Amino acid sequence: MLGLGVAGVAAAPLLQRGVEAVAKKDPTGLSGVLPAGGGFRYYSVTASVPHKGERDYRLKVDGLVERPAAYTLAELRAEPQTRLVRDVQCVTGWRVPDTPFEGVRLARLLDAAGVRPAARAVRFTCFDGAYSESLTLEQARRKDVLVALRMQDKPLGHAHGGPARLYVAPMYFYKSAKWLSGITLTDEVRPGYWEERGYDVDAWVGRSNGRDDAPTV
Ligand SMILES: Nc1nc2c(c(=O)[nH]1)N[C@H]1C(S)=C(S)[C@@H](COP(=O)(O)O)O[C@H]1N2
Ligand SMILES: [Mo]
């Protein structure tokens, strides 16, 4: 997996013109190698993703909760916002230092929903219809895990998973599910898209990125 990713990045200049066509043929997303502004690559495991905005975006919170909810963007913006500046690290090798993300702490949304005692994990689903992610409940409650509405001090653009994505600051960027549409409390961790394909569920980048930060429980 890592080998393929590095090869893909190295081949980027050759692929630039044809990258869209290539991406459509590559369900792994490893062809998302078009260098983007600020050192980011845009990754998507699907060839196209619908646009959602003010009118039709909803973030559902359900599963093992007392009060299921569906947030509009305006409602998410009305919550207290937290800004974090950390390094972004993809497992295929690229890294973008000091990237600001801003949004609502996931712990806040979990508390508002009233997590039932049987819940042990959180599953995240996306309106691309394919990607998913997961965290243990303890990980999900950390202060450095956000539902991000802004990135690089701008509203989150569609290519980066807008209007809202998960942002798991202390872990590899594949944990930060783009186009986030569902937060489901479950009784055990259900492996996400890449985790079913061999990536670790616990994707800590390292202590320097805040691993020893206390959870907010
Ligand atoms: N829905 C969705 N989220 C996703 C992915 C994806 O393919 N689909 N790729 C993941 C991976 S592997 C990385 S490195 C980052 C890339 O985010 P970016 O496209 O904003 O750079 O998103 C993560 N979240
Ligand atoms: Mo990644």
From TrEMBL:
Enumerate the Gene3D superfamilies for this protein.
Oxidoreductase, molybdopterin-binding domain (3.90.420.10)
| One Pfam family linked to the record | Oxidored_molyb
PANTHER family, per the entry: OXIDOREDUCTASE MOLYBDOPTERIN-BINDING DOMAIN-CONTAINING PROTEIN, PROTEIN-METHIONINE-SULFOXIDE REDUCTASE
InterPro entries recorded: OxRdtase_Mopterin-bd_dom, OxRdtase_Mopterin-bd_sf
Q: Which residues does UniProt call coiled coil? A: none
* SUPFAM superfamilies registered for this protein in UniProt: Oxidoreductase molybdopterin-binding domain
**UniProt name for this protein:** Molybdopterin-dependent oxidoreductase
Boundaries of every Oxidoreductase molybdopterin-binding domain copy:
48-194
